[in-house]
Specification:
This protein is α+β, with helices and mostly antiparallel strands. The protein has 2 domains: 1-76, no CATH class; 79-223, no CATH class. 26% of the residues lie in helices and 33% in strands. It has helices at residues 18-29, 42-53, 163-168, 190-203, 206-218; strands at residues 2-4, 8-9, 14-15, 57-62, 68-75, 78-84, 90-98, 106-116, 123-131, 137-143, 152-158, 170-171. Strands 1, 4, 5, 6, 7, 8, 9, 10, 11 and 12 form a 10-stranded antiparallel sheet that branches. Strands 2-3 form a two-stranded antiparallel ribbon. β6 (78-84) and β7 (90-98) form a beta hairpin. α1 runs parallel beside α2. The chain is globular and about 55 Å long. The two termini are 30 Å apart.
């Protein structure tokens, strides 16, 4: 996979140009890179500076065919990752937060699954899985519509995740341009993973393949 620092535009389902991305960085970070006449190499320079200062910047992970795999937004102590399926709809989100007194480590605090009606990109429900540093796990299902009175929010407290699963939720703060550890799907705890697979096996079977690749790449086989 490859990385570009051009922002992903979900509304237009395309990569923004370097100029448009620079302009967004200037607006967020109060810089003036987009005003320079010679813009060659400026986007990477501005993004690197934002990374070092923990300001806003973007990165998009691309497959080998240049199709988008994951869109990343970074801010102060935060990394938000939107995983994209083959129609460019974001079906899965990771939210990492930097934790104080943890040597700069990030914690995968929340995982969101966006389910669409079969064969469409129309949202049917959202399931939020949240985790605590002690291994606590809860979920919230949002479904239905407020305008027709069908909206409901279902909250569930689940048994704690295992020590091994909890360990995988912690990750070192990434170096600039190195996001392999953030996009690891094998970090997803088992209960959330099973729910995600139940949906993606029907609507986006490639997820299981991506998950298995990460398991084989990063985890030691169990004896």
């Amino acid at each position: 996979m490859k990385v570009t620092f051009r922002a992903w535009s979900q509304g237009y389902t395309e990569l923004q140009s370097e100029g448009d991305t620079l302009y967004r960085l200037d607006c967020y970070n109060k810089t003036r890179y987009s005003r320079r006449k010679n813009k060659e190499g400026l986007l990477e320079l501005a993004s690197r500076e934002a990374h070092e200062q923990q300001n806003v910047y973007f990165a998009t992970i691309l497959n080998e065919d240049d199709s988008p795999y994951c869109a990343i937004e970074s801010n102060v102590g935060y990394f938000g990752l939107d995983f994209l399926r083959d129609n460019y709809d974001d079906y899965l989100t990771f939210q990492y937060r930097e934790q104080r007194n943890q040597n700069g480590k990030l914690f995968l605090k929340a995982i969101f699954l966006f389910e669409c009606y079969p064969g469409t990109d129309k949202r049917m429900r959202r399931i939020d899985f949240s985790y605590t540093h002690e291994g606590g796990c809860s979920s919230v299902i949002y479904q239905g519509e407020a305008y027709d009175g069908t909206f409901e929010m279902i909250t569930t407290e689940h048994p704690p995740i295992s020590a091994e699963e909890l360990e995988l939720l912690w990750v070192d703060y990434p170096k600039f341009g190195e996001y392999d550890q953030l996009i690891r799907l094998d970090r997803i705890p088992l209960q959330a993973r099973e729910r995600i697979l139940e949906y993606t096996d029907k609507e986006f079977p490639a997820f299981r393949q991506y998950l298995q690749q990460d398991i084989e790449r990063y985890q030691e086989p169990k004896k």
